[in-house]
Write a structure and sequence with these properties.
The complex is a heterodimer of chains A (356) and B (310). With 356 residues, chain A is mostly helical. Chain A has helices at residues 16-38, 43-55, 58-82, 91-108, 114-143, 147-167, 201-218, 220-230, 232-237, 242-269, 280-290, 295-319, 325-345, and strands spanning 2-8, 346-352. In chain A, helix 1 crosses helix 2 (43-55). In chain B, 69% of the residues lie in helices and 0% in strands. In chain B, helix 3 packs antiparallel against helix 9 (183-210). The termini of chain B are far apart. Classes of the chains: A mainly alpha (356), B mainly alpha (310). Chains A and B meet through helix 1, helix 6, helix 11 and helix 13 of A and helix 3, helix 4, helix 10, helix 12 and helix 13 of B.
Chain lengths: 356, 310
């Protein structure tokens, strides 16, 4: 009987990571097309519709950028933790709490000056997201509580906390019973550019990507984090403190996600309402993985995933397909990426067992 | 106190889908594989169960189909995580996304249709008992199946050779291999069986509990089940009690909203998640640096027979 044999590669070719990422996207689009065919929808028509909707005109393009902003920031956030092999699945919760803190600042500490508000909102969002992340980091570092479980659970705690406020005490009396806060005053809104909904957050994303590149490439702490991730034993011998680094790293990871949450409600929505983050924190995990944690590539992949989301919106309107259909493509990309990753680290050989 | 009876009976019923998913994940985690895809697998189970029950006009056909679909999806997870050594967290999340999306897409024409579901089957004799009768023994067959399965797993895991092998594959797969068994085969087997149970939980939602299909109808029960496995410290009976308890929280919440009580629903909804973290924390503190809180030692660690342990 022929059998597969995995043989570890001595060195990993530089081109293989990116190639596998592109391949898994193509295969995922193929698999999604198969499902569409099963439903009697022409995949070609669906993909053309998506492409036209997301990239075919100025409005679609700007909406793609709008969605790419939180994806890039949250992607950078989780990539920071992933570098240390800390699996921060909690970007969604950190986004939500960042947004919650922003709304609280606007509600209780409003000053009628844009720059003061920008500073206060950034500070509170980063602190809220950061502390939410640092809590999971502390639980992991000090008490060995699995961060995957804790961050996942904390996402739901954050979600219900946000619901509590927008369905309860913070609901706008003028909203006719809709669960949403009152609209933010102009001083608490991020500026928009070029008559689109693209907001100041785009510069946050670009600056943060540059900062992360610099951090891992040129700073001592960035190097320590990489060592902790790639070889914890070496890090231990070298005296790099684990607990402190996990807590700090999770703080910064959460803070970036929290800023993404601020951008969503102060830049885009102008108020807090349910579902303002349609799972950006989870999609960010795919973004970080597809980009192989490379900050520059995260920007590109975030743009691609943004296009996928906008395309999904178009698909819903034009072909009446459920919005959740884009999850299929996202899920398939991840599945193929994972399945293909073994080629990165291993050669696969086919052996025929000799009869003995 | 009489008014508690219908609430507790409702708790048992609404806890049953969570129970099956919890026991499925428990099997999977006990053998050393973490499957975060529960929500997606449950949704696919709900959809295929409903579709099967509708098309074959037989609820059992739907339930059987849901189990098969659950097994197929978790088999994919097993290929990625056991054979290819992929990251289990990411693979599970991928399954959750895939299942959510696929069920929404394929089920879009089934929204609004209803089916008869399973008839109630009060157990003769037992159902007439005061308290216990209406709470435990006046339900459908699958609810009793949940009781039996919980008891069976508690016995199987701790009092049989098969259960010992299962747990060993989750604690020390290398030892299992050294003993002449195949850790890889065990991991495949129980990951797939566990996935079947998760699919069954999903089918209970659509075929028995609501008798209809709706997009995202499991509403986070998959994630609660994931929490309950830890909450129950990987023991079937404790996890089952948790499932019924949170089934009860869900049932109580509906009643309280109807009764106009002021405790806000979102605060009740976050209870399972807060308690899971609290339990993990309390146990970690009490045992000092407890690496394994009853958690399978090799949980989430890919196993390669050919390579040395790090």
């Amino acid at each position: 009987m022929p059998r597969l044999w995995l043989e570890k590669r001595k060195d990993i070719p530089w081109w293989i990571g990116g190639t596998l990422s592109v391949l898994s996207v193509i295969l995922a689009l193929g698999a999604g097309g198969g499902l569409l065919l099963a439903l009697g929808v022409s995949p070609w028509e669906a993909y053309v519709t998506m492409f036209r909707g997301a990239l075919g005109n100025w409005y679609g393009l700007s909406e793609t950028v709008v969605k790419a902003i939180p994806l890039a920031m949250a992607g950078l956030a989780v990539s920071l933790a992933f570098r240390m092999q800390v699996w921060n699945i909690g970007a969604e919760g950190q986004i939500l709490l960042g947004a919650l803190a922003t709304a609280a600042t606007v509600r209780y500490a409003f000053v009628d000056n844009f720059f003061v508000m920008l500073f206060l909102m950034m500070l509170s969002a980063a602190l809220a997201g950061g502390l939410w992340g640092a809590l999971a980091g502390w639980l992991k570092g000090r008490w060995r509580v699995n961060e995957i479980i804790s961050t996942l659970m904390m996402n739901y705690i954050a979600l219900h906390t946000v619901d509590y406020f927008i369905y309860g005490p913070w609901r706008d009396p003028a909203s006719l019973g809709f669960p949403m806060t009152a609209p933010f005053p102009p001083a608490a809104r991020l500026p928009l550019f070029l008559d689109t909904r693209v907001h100041l957050g785009i510069f946050f994303a670009l600056i943060l990507a540059g900062a992360l590149y610099f951090f891992f490439r040129w700073t001592r702490w960035g190097f320590e984090v990489r060592v902790l991730g790639e070889n914890p034993q070496v890090a231990h011998y070298a005296g790099i403190p684990y607990v402190r680094n996990v807590v700090l790293l999770m703080f910064f990871s959460g803070a970036l996600a929290g800023l993404a949450g601020m951008g969503e409600i102060a830049g885009l929505q102008g108020r807090m309402q349910p579902g303002f983050s349609p799972g950006y924190g989870y999609t960010a995990i795919i973004v970080a993985w597809l980009a192989r944690l490379n900050p520059g590539a995260i920007l590109g992949v975030a743009f691609f995933m943004g296009a996928l989301l906008v395309g999904g919106d178009t698909l819903q309107v034009v072909l009446r397909l459920p919005l959740a259909s884009t999850h299929i493509i996202q899920g398939c990309i991840l599945i193929f990426l994972l399945g293909g990753d073994v080629w990165r680290t291993h050669r696969i050989r086919l052996f025929r067992d000799k009869k003995c | 106190m009489e008014y508690l009876i219908p609430i507790m009976a409702a708790a048992v019923r609404s806890g049953t889908p969570i129970l099956f998913a919890t026991l499925g994940e428990l099997l999977t985690e006990r053998v050393g594989v973490m499957n975060l895809g529960l929500e997606g697998i449950m949704l696919m189970g709900s959809l295929s169960g409903f579709w099967g029950a509708l098309v074959f006009s037989n609820p059992w056909a739907g339930i059987a189909l849901a189990v098969l679909v659950g097994m197929a999806l978790s088999a994919l997870h097993a290929v990625l995580c056991v054979s290819l050594g992929a990251n289990q967290v990411v693979s599970g999340l991928a399954l959750a996304m895939f299942g959510t999306g696929t069920s929404a897409l394929l089920g879009k024409n089934l929204v609004g249709v209803t089916i008869p579901g399973l008839p109630a089957a009060p157990l003769p004799g037992l159902a007439e008992l005061p308290w216990v009768g209406p709470i435990l023994f006046s339900h459908d067959v699958l609810v009793y199946g949940g009781f039996i399965l919980t008891a069976f797993l508690a016995w199987f895991l701790y009092f049989t050779r098969g259960g010992l092998n299962l747990r060993a594959a989750g604690e020390a797969p290398r030892v299992v291999d050294a003993a002449g068994l195949s850790a890889v085969r065990l991991r495949y087997l129980y990951t797939i069986l566990g996935g079947g149970l998760v699919g069954l939980g999903g089918a209970y939602m659509s075929v028995v509990y609501t008798k209809m299909w709706a997009e995202m109808m499991t509403a986070g029960r998959g994630w609660i089940a994931l929490a309950l496995v830890i909450f129950g410290l990987w023991h079937p009976v404790r996890s089952a009690l948790g499932a019924y308890f949170f089934g009860g929280v869900g049932a109580l919440q509906l009643r309280m909203q109807a009764g106009g009580t002021t405790v806000p629903a979102p605060l009740l909804m976050m209870l399972p998640y807060v308690m899971t973290i609290a339990v993990l924390f309390v146990i970690a503190v009490r045992k000092g640096y407890a690496v394994s809180l009853g958690a399978p030692r090799s949980l989430g660690v890919p196993y390669h027979r050919e390579e040395r342990d790090g």
